[in-house]
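Why do we care about 3D structure at all? Because function follows from shape, and shape follows, mostly, from sequence. That is the central idea of this module. The next example makes it concrete: a single protein chain, its amino acid sequence, and then its structure expressed as tokens.
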Amino acid sequence: MSSTLFRTKKVEQSLLDTEEPEHALKKSLSALDLTVFGVGVIIGTGIFVLTGTVAKNNAGPATALAFVAAGVACALAALCYAEFASTVPVAGSAYTFSYASLGELPAWIIGWDLVLEFALGTAVVAVGWSGYIQSLMENAGWTMPAGLGSREGADTFGFDILAAALVLVLTAILVVGMKLSARITSVVVAIKVTVVLVVIIAGAFLIEGKNYDPFIPKEKPVEAGSSLDSPLIQLMFGWAPSNFGVMGIFTAASVVFFAFIGFDVVATAAEETKNPQRDMPRGILGSLVICTTLYVLVSIVVTGMQHYSQLSVDAPLADAFKATGHPWFAGFISFGAAVGLTTVCMILLLGQTRVFFAMSRDGLLPRFFSHVHPRFKTPHRPTIVLGVIIAVLAGFTPLTELAALVNIGTLFAFVVVAIGVIILRKSRPDLPRAFRTPWVPVIPILSVCASLWLMINLPAETWVRFAIWMAAGFLVYFLYGRTHSRLARGEASEEQPSAGGGTA
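And the structure:
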């Protein structure tokens, strides 16, 4: 039993699978496309909301240091992802990496985890986008009909038609092709980054030095729990710890870390990249560096414009400009946030469909979903099915309690990928690696420790729900995946001699 549960799929076989005409994705992405995808999915609600939350609740002006700490934790994971994505440029990200290093059962677990993570992430972002659009509509004097607006906090039956419509439109775009998706993402990201740069440049002229005193607050100057009232924070995380002092910076880092979620989605597009060995590391690391820099600058500016104790929790950037007598910027920032969330939603949906496609191509899910469109060369079947399911989920379901699963799912993937790098270095030292994670095993071990430390800061309820989802995954695997996988049916050899004497 144990030998079948931990059978590995050799890297060479994974690469051969990408050349089968019926299961081959079109290679159309460049390093610039990947970087744009990364920036597009990372810069979202987090930069427009989290700055105020952690400044007021944890770190004060030292929020910039919290973003640096979170960026370092992500960089450790990004170095591991970059090695895997350039060595095994196959759709599926952490799922594919796990299959090559840890074995079938761990790969299934991480794939099952990613399917949930990306599905809930897409639905949550779609609901957030709907809220911004409805706010802008109300500012223009338009109101959504009763029962067709946001479901969050609703007491009566209704359907968030805007959230569902967004998911369906993005599903259609992803079916048509990756290059179209990349072009649309490029335009939207340009708008979003422009908004962020305007905030930084315009806000820099409104900074008052006295607002930085104290830079690292020793105690909370507002009523306990007052900054937990933001429905968006509850929607995204379900929690917001309130420590101050030096430990407040690290606690804040565990919160703002979730503003970085998404760079790992870039790895799911490895199979559709023209030169993945060169471009995947550039896309992953480049997008992370750009976003970390922007996050730090924004946090420095907003805490300099307005004292951290007076920052708004729901819309700190927009309200800081209002407080300094520049209300025009508030609408401009809200527009940028609404536009920016479209790319976050699309790239999360992209990531989920690629993981699902890879799992079906390996036989762990029905092979029906592993065929690509004859014209567009995209995995149209899982894209359409999952898009419809997520549209319904976003339309009907208030996601406050479920959204925290996105956080733990991402961190779990980081842990698995870091461990996989160490194992594959031992079992397959002969593999050509265009990018090598430096200081192995030190960097992967640090990545595991950083991710686990952030995971233990999550509430117990999140762990319980995560365990329930994983239990359901085990059931599906043992009832279907274990006997239907291509390795089980002998369609792909699981043994591969290596210089290290292991299997791959």
